[in-house]
């Protein structure tokens, strides 16, 4: 196991230096302390599998790259192709387009069945879009974007509720007050660093 730790440590250092990241840069990206990064790179400890997965995505390599000895050039077969990254973006965009397709279908259905133009359905597609982005960013993206995407979800959801009530001739602007503690909580959660 110690040999594996040393192999992973050496590979982590090589990948970080190839990207010209400092340990602090990597720590901020992964939301860990720079001390934890230092321990990983010395082989004193190993990141958990979830963090290894994030590291692989960040550097565009597979887990095999981290666990095998050799130089970067010798392990090219373990480097992810640009097409794989592009496919992740395309898959995310497809799911976002499904949200908007559903909104269009409901909009048309309400027009044909009830003869009502219910435009707020498009406003509701915005938090739906950010919900999809939260999911895929957590799965494939960089954690530092989570704060922005979650914040956009919170505020578009509250705006959708507000617009919904305005459509029915009720003004519930205080609904935005709920967003303040939610936004603060989102920022504070993002500031938590795991050691």
Provide the fold topology.
Blueprint: H1 2-18, H2 23-30, H3 34-42, H4 49-59, H5 63-67, H6 82-114, H7 120-140, H8 146-167, H9 179-191
Helix pairs in contact: 2-3, 6-7, 7-8, 8-9
Which key phrases capture this entry?
9 helices, 195 residues, 71% helix, elongated, mainly alpha
SSE order: HHHHHHHHH
Terminal CA distance reads: 21 Å
Query: Tell me about the biggest sheet?
Result: none
- What is the count of β-strands? 0
Structural class: mainly alpha
Low-confidence stretches: none
Helical content band: over 70%
Portion of residues in beta strands equals under 5%
Q: What value does the Rg take, in angstroms?
A: 22 Å
Overall, the morphology is: elongated
What would your notes on this structure say?
The model has no long low-confidence stretch (mean pLDDT 87). Helix 2 (23-30) packs across helix 3. The two termini are 21 Å apart. The chain is mainly alpha-helical and 195 residues long. It is built from 9 helices and no strands. The chain has helices at 2-18, 23-30, 34-42, 49-59, 63-67, 82-114, 120-140, 146-167, 179-191.
């Amino acid at each position: 196991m110690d040999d594996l730790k040393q192999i992973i440590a050496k590979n982590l250092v090589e990948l970080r230096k190839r990207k010209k990241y400092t340990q602090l840069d990597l720590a901020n990206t992964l939301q860990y302390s720079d001390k934890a990064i230092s321990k990983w790179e010395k082989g004193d400890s190993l990141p958990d599998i979830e963090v290894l997965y994030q590291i692989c995505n960040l550097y565009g390599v597979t887990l095999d790259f981290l666990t095998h000895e050799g130089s970067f050039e010798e392990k090219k077969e373990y480097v992810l192709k640009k097409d794989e990254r592009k496919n992740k973006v395309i898959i995310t965009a497809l799911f976002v387009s499904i949200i908007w397709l559903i909104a269009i279908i409901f909009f048309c259905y309400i027009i044909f069945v009830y003869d009502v133009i219910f435009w707020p359905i498009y406003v509701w597609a915005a938090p739906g879009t950010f919900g999809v982005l939260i999911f895929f960013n957590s799965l494939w993206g960089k954690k530092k974007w989570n704060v922005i995407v979650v914040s956009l979800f919170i505020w578009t959801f509250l705006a959708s509720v507000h617009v919904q009530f305005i459509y029915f001739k009720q003004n519930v602007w205080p609904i935005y007050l709920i967003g303040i503690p939610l936004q603060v909580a989102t920022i504070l959660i993002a500031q938590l660093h795991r050691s």
